[in-house]
Amino acid sequence: MKRIAILMLACAIRAQAQDFSESLLPTLKTYCIDCHNEKKHEGELNLALFDSETAVLSGRKVWKRVWEMLHNREMPPPEEEQPSEAQRLALTDWIEQVLARPVAGGTPDPGHVPPRRLTAVQYNATVADLFGVQRRTTFYNLDRNGGGMPRMVRFVLHRQFQEPLVHLPPDAATHGFDSLAESLSLPPFLMEKYLDAAQKLTAREDIQQAFLRRTGRQQRGGDSAETDRWIIADALKRAFRRPPDEQELARYTGFYDLAIKNGEDRTKAISVALQAILVAPQFLFRLESGVASEEKDSVRPLTDHELAARLSYFLWDTIPDRELNYAADEGRLRDPAVLAAQARRMLRDPRAEEFIRDFSLQWLRIQNISSHAPDPSVLGAFNNRLKNFNEALASEVLLLFATVMAEDRSVLDLVDPDFTWLNLTLCGVYGIENQLAPGVAKPNSAEWLRYPITDRRRGGVITAGATLMVNSNPTHTNPIKRGKWLLECVLGQTLPPPLPNVPNLDATPVVQGGLPIREKLARHSADATCASCHARIDPPGFALENYDAIGVWRDNEGGAAIDPAGMLKDGTKFNGPVGLKDMLRGPKRNEFTRCLTEHLFTYALGRPVQYYDIATIQGIVKKAEADGYRFSTLITEIITSHAFRYLKTKPDDS
Amino acid sequence: MNILHKHTLSRRTLLRGAGSMLALPWLEIMAAPPAKASPLRSVFMFVPGGVNHDEWLPKTEGEDYEPGKTLAALAPVKQHVLVLSGVNARHGEVGANGHPLGTAPWLSSAPINDKDRGGYCTDISVDQLIANHVGKDTRLPSLELGCDSDSRSMHETNISWRGPASPMGKEFNPRDIYNRLFADPKADVYRTSILDAVREDAKRLSSRLGGIDKEKLDEYFEAVRSIERRIDFASRHQLEHPPEMRLPDGVPANYIEHAHLLTDLLVLALQTDTTRVSTFMLNNEPGRASWNEIGVKENHHGLAHLDPRTAEGRDKLDKLQRIDQAYVEIFVRMIQKLAAIPEGEGTVLDHCQIAYGSGLTWGRLHNRDNIPLLLAGGGNGMIRGGRHVRYHGEAFADLHLAMLRNAGVQIERTADSKEPLKGLA
User: Fold this and answer.
1) pTM greater than 0.80 (yes/no)
2) How many domains does chain A have?
């Protein structure tokens, strides 16, 4: 049976090999190689090098970009002859498969994730759970509300969102998230903070009490050294997110013994052991690499405990709870069905509020919204409601995300929902105050009510005040920023970096003032150097010009009517925000889903999407499409993917 | 071939003080400072986004140079400050462009290559090369400060690097900074044995790893070692009377107040010889969202991208100049303070070399030729201020090299440097 399968696989691979030279290579030759050859390597790309499938296999990194260009219909350029849709699809499908294919006889590449230091958010959540310190949830508590989002939520998102147990410096980001292994460094001053925090936290009486309560010291026979050792062993397992080995057990219970020998009482002795655990590398880093290169191609399945930790940090930003740990202890998490069931449970747990905050604010690049300072001239009537204005805008997005998650709705509702959450401030910004039906309650500023949407100019992330404001300048809108944001965060396109020779700008015709912004930018984009990118970036930004720099609707700008029509580089037309939503619900729904999936995937794994992941991502999008784009489908497909459940132990660069 | 850029060297070796590895015979001719001389302090102050270069560049050279609008603000400390123009920060001149290139490699001039993570190259920076050399003599080997605490890309938020992809980070909270400087590492009796234990664990784990995995554990290992060193140093040099300073609990909402507090802490750190090396990012790239403190409502980045030949540019570029000036005034205030503290035969400032500038020239062009640069302090006799010196395309790394040699780091060259920048004294 197995042999037959392998035989079939071999045939399939051979069939694809034939495909390349016989049917795909001619397409490449006709449409691509004219510009991308040895002599004329446009975009520093020479496709003539790839005359066989073997050649492609050995130079695969380049092909991720080729795939993106073809998939997004950026290439061939519009003025050149275009391949048929069938030819294009054949090419992109083939590239996906080839990029994901292991080297002959090998295992598919799940990617390598270097040790990840806990982020400031993860550290605080982890420490709180380790000690059993109660954490407050502010808007995501489904059980308390009969299993769903409540009718009314009362909360104010404060500047720091929540007072953390320990103040740590913000973590730097790469690829949009601050939780990626590559950018999480550990400079000396941060280590000093960890040491001080460990000492201070373990010395706090309330924390000691919470910890002993959580571990049930009393019930376990109370005050005996044996119980205490058990408590420390349990804390080690939770802190290291796996059972400790003998050496670790001895090392850290050794601190308990040392303290007792120094004449400390038992509670203090436990604190000393905890103090050491809180600065151990096994605690501060999520380590998965383990034993290197003994497995075939250095690929191995994750252990149950590693899976549990990946899952809990993905959905909760903290350590596994008792139930997840238990499933790991019993070796059940290797079963994808069990893993998926755990994820569905966890998405409904109050701890998932951390995921909503941490993921959605970073995905939408509004995590620094508090420091955005719109100009009073733009704020106008909202000047006197400035307190928590920015936070209110962010809260709307969080509540939208929470609702999609809680009700397991289509992810397309993130863009185009039939409801939205409003407090008093947002009612004002959106001009809804006067539209409410008689008898419908109006919220105050700390109360959020859910309203059905009849006017599609409102609701969803692309017309949310938060994203509109953050992608504006303090005094006026910035269509370039908005366009770039829409392409990168909603449509999942990769934009090239600014041109290396921008001094050319000085040779472009100078634009005089007094024109509506669209005309100014049209002239700016008339220059061929600039136009190559701005013809692509600016139009989706213009489609949102009806929203001012804080998201208030306007019909005119600079005395002229706003023209919000435009099209994407591939020719897809849209008109204004509703047109954008039609596009994202219609022809571009899989692009939006791919974009969201890529962001979730990056966040879940702590590494950027690589060339070998494209097939996985596209597979998830197809599954989602077949399943009504349900939110939980994205999550369960990610966590049951090869990339999530397996690990390449060897780093890419070693 | 610059030894620092041979990637075959393990990063551990680099972290352990690449600067002091080389002892080149021809450097012996350099005059060694007398034994009891005041130690040289090195400070690097960074401003984001380039400047309004039309208003920055002095119109003439030499001692009687005619400053533009922005550098007229140097008047109170003019004799202490050297204005350098015509220096380029090209870092090998390849690859992507934009604001991160004006930040991450500012103090290393690391060239870009396809091995870089995240698209921008990083390598050990000048301040850390110096800290590796002189840091053992002070309570803190180096001090990294910054006013901005927003979460952004690591390449826009760091100028100080221990090695490739390994930023030093920075502190923004005045009270935390004070505690780090002057409160002795409060080791309870267990700290030493805890550090021993976790260091052993890190070593054990690291031995099984390779590549970036090992680098991550090495960072941990080095951080632990640096703390052990601090504890050891503090035990031998008891701080009997920590200087007093009034500090708010949190971070002041007013930016200028915040920046002043941080410079005051920096001055105190230098004066007390608590550290001899510091970097200070007056802000992250690409600049602050607005400058309400000086009545500029627009965001810095937006202003930096205006074209002076447009009506809007002509209209608003003076606001960019006002921002540039506000930054320079923070610098001037610090120089004044340092010049007022007697030390040895002169003042603390005489024993400082303070570089100030941006990694970009004009924000809108993202160019790095003729970057805005100031050099302040006496540099223990190696810098003579009160002048504008015009260079002709010399690399910023040449200034790095000059400052390294000033600080006693015996290094042949760094990145694209050719020779130590001449004409400083």
Assistant:
1) yes
2) 4
